[in-house]
Fold:
Amino acid sequence: MSKPLVEGLAGDPRIYADAVERMLERIDATSAALGEAFPLSADPVTGAWQTSPDGRWTGGFWAGLLWLAASASGGARHRDLAEAAMRRLEVRLPVDNVLNGLVFYYGAALGALLEVSEAGAQLGRRGATALAARFQPSIGFVPLGHQSGSLTADADGETNIDGVPGMSLLFWAAEYFGQAPLREVGVRHTRAHVDLCQRPDGSLHQAALVNPRSGTMLRQYSPRGYKHDGTWARAQSWGLLGFTQAYAWTRDPFFSEAAMRVADWWLGAAPPDRVAFWDFKDPAIPDTERDTSATAMTAAALLKLGRLAPAPAQRARYTEAGVATVRALLEGYLTPTHRSDARPRGILTEGCWQRNEGVATRHELVWGDYYLLESLLMLTGRIDRVI
Structure:
């Protein structure tokens, strides 16, 4: 096993080892219950999952959880399950949705990164090629896509911060296969979102609409947030993760500076217990939903910044914040949270998918599980690189 990420800072390592075991138990139970279906969101009391046959935009996170489980357990069973889930994602290759970057980075490329899966490398390459082919030079990014579930009729000129972390698929494929043009698409897409979505204070708009011919800005807004000029928690976490991972792959200071602005805003705006509400500007706070999925994503990004930030003081600050955020999730939201808790073990509760539509507002969400387990494996040294 590799050296833990924050030796001496994370506290009792048994806390993290126990959480990993709980999450592996939940992964095994999910796999046994669902067979070839992909989990989306689960009832936090019964553990029963809502599923999809093709995984939708979240399918890569289920395969990714299985790749993480293979790294954690060291066994062939989880690797075989990950390979099988990955193969079922192939049907999404022709889908016109920028979130395919997430699907094939976590679902396929992660297998090549963590488990040296040649099948993962080849499917990841196909996913990267298909994603890059949708890049529009006139606007400088991959549009949201006509099969994205866009809330507007302008998918050719619309983009979401949600799609930025998936550019890691292009950065990975460029490095793995020596295809520099893929890297350039990833760089241009990510840079565009710093310009389109980041406010001067470091907070983020979720979405932007531009003229698809000229690239001229038409509108900035947050369709999934409390209001269009608000700050949706998951927009902030997607941006933080995406800018951080762009820096990890490129070492371009433009991306580290953007990531640290987002991180600093989050750390100044998050509640004292560190678990974000679903939208930072909901006037009902604290009597409104949390979003542990955004918080888990942020924890993973902060731990990565703790390795990557240029100055030692910055690295220490982000590492400490990442550790504290993980601890907050374990202590308050990963079942069982106390001895009398009868819920299935290893559920990350209080994820909020689509608050405005009333969809899975206090549930387990598969991507929240992914980012919490990734954070735990970084903390315990089972993952020794930024992925």
